[in-house]
């Protein structure tokens, strides 16, 4: 289904795109080639092809959900100016 420059101008108007009439001809040709390619892909029989969840046969590397860093909160809060109930206290900066 080749597109004409008029088709492209109508599409551009609907999409609120602004380009000149001279630009419509190259776009018509390029869009026609894209549509032809899509039609070619749609013509391929894929009824015997099993659906894939991913195009590559790769396994995802997983690791155990284990804490590896030590809890140093008490160490850092010892040197903080103000701490209360495990939280850092800071002066109010926004009135």
Could you describe the 3D structure shown?
The chain has 95 residues and is mostly helical. Helix content is 40%, strand content 4%. It contains three helices and two strands. A two-stranded antiparallel sheet has the order 1-2. β1 (83-84) and β2 form a beta hairpin. α1 crosses α2 (21-42). It is elongated and about 75 Å long. The N and C termini lie far apart (65 Å).
Task: Report the average pLDDT across residues.
Answer: 90
**Number of distinct helices:** 3
Helix content: 40-55%
Query: Termini separation (Å)?
Result: 65 Å
User: Helix-strand pattern, N to C?
Assistant: HHHEE
Instruction: Return residue spans where pLDDT drops below 50 for at least 5 consecutive residues.
Output: none
Strand order of the largest sheet: 1-2
Structural class by secondary-structure content: mainly alpha
Strand content: under 5%
Rg, nearest Å: 31 Å
Q: Please tell me what the overall shape is.
A: elongated
Largest sheet: 2 strands, antiparallel
